Amino acid sequence: MIVKKIESKHINQISKIWENNLKENLYSILGTKLIKVYLQICLKENNFGFVLENKKDVCGFVIYGKDNNINKVIIKKYFINIFYKFFLNLICFNFKNFYHFIDVFLYLIASNNKDEKLKNTCELLIISIEKKYQRKGWGKKLVYKAEKNIYKLKKINKTFVKTTQKENILFYKNLNFKILKKIFNRTYLLKKINYE
Question: What pLDDT is attached to residue 93?
Answer without folding.
Answer: 84
